[in-house]
Amino acid sequence: MALRPKVPKTTIVDIAAASGVSVATVSRILNDKPDVADETRARVLRVMDEIGFAPQSAWRQIRSGRTRLIAVHRPEEFNPPAYRLLIAASLGVEEAGYSINIITRTLSDAELLRIFRSRQADGMILLEIQADDPRAEILRAQGFPFVMVGHRADNAGISFVDLDVEHGIGLALEHLVALGHREIAFLAIAPVVRQKVYGFATWALQGYEHACTRLGLAPISASGSASSDAMSAAATRLLDDHPEVTAVIAPQELSAVGVLRACHARGMTIPHDLSLIAMIGDSMSELATPPLTTIDFPAEELGRTAARNLVDRLDSGDATLRQVFIRPGLTIRGTTAPPAAR
Q1: Which helix (H) or strand (E) holds 275?
Q2: Which of 3, 154, 256, 270 places its Cα 20 to 30 Å from the Cα of 54?
Q3: Nearest 5°: CA angle at 100, between 60 and 96?
Q4: Are 184 and 217 in contact (CB under 8 A)?
Q5: Is the pTM for the entire model greater than 0.85?
């Protein structure tokens, strides 16, 4: 087989010669430095296009100042990673022609701003929202495009998509009351971690307390840190301190695991001795025996909605405020039943 002659690779030396500028000038244009005359910059970019120095998309990025990259900031200091939500957000931005960069470490204010100022990303999706999340304050003040998955206490001028967790917990309590339960407890990851107040856990507890008031129930709640052992210990304390409890609502995967482990250690069966309603995905709920009654958690819809809202702003410049609550349903399976006589 005859070998094709190797085509010499175009270098910045070639670009400089064809443009009539120095190699240093080409380098400065490639790095988007500001101290190059507009006419010179335009001439060099035109030569790059004509010679085919790089894929056309790369030069569109240089010319527009756009990276076609969206950052997702999901600091791992509260809940375990919400993989389905992350995957849905990733698919949403990639379908729109963007790439995604997932950041899991805590960022200082300067590091957060540097992502935009150094053009590492065009926009950002924020997860694990605190009740007074400072990231939103900083980005809103600077006018950088972002959207939250979750909401703060003050959401003026901020776009977000969130689960209407209060509605879901209200459905759960109504279902248990209809079955005859009156002593219904709530077990969740503690909303305050190292002086940070996390929104989801806060709004979930408030939703439980509001629904208890509406239904004439006395609230019974307990919490623990974000580990299966800590939640098992919290569930054990809850059942020790409140033996009258006949049902528990657990709005996180770890809190549901804690209840299941505590019941197993005590020889209690679900739902005969204790009814349980969790908030986890359908596939996980079906793995339990019996399958868990759940408040739906539409992770895919949350992720895709956040991605779509941010991409619309980036592509069309539409800065319309979008604050979306997604109402979950209640899927009744095998872990709820009328309370047994005691």
Answers
A1: strand 275-278
A2: 3
A3: 60
A4: yes
A5: no
**194-243 per-position pLDDT tens digit:** 788 999 999 999 999 999 999 999 999 999 998 899 999 999 999 999 99
For residues 132 and 148, what is the distance between their CA atoms, to the nearest angstrom? 12
Taking the C-alpha atoms of residue 30 and residue 11, their distance in angstroms, rounded to an integer, is: 12
Residue 80's CB is within 10 A of a number of other CB atoms, namely 13
Q: For the chain, list the domains and their CATH numbers.
A: 12-64 (1.10.260.40), 69-163+299-326 (3.40.50.2300), 165-297 (3.40.50.2300)
Backbone angles phi, psi at 94, to 5 degrees: -70, -35
- The dihedral region occupied by 83, where left means phi > 0, alpha psi between -120 and 50, and beta the remainder, is alpha
- In DSSP notation, 280-316 reads --HHHHHHSSSPPEEE---HHHHHHHHHHHHHHHHHH
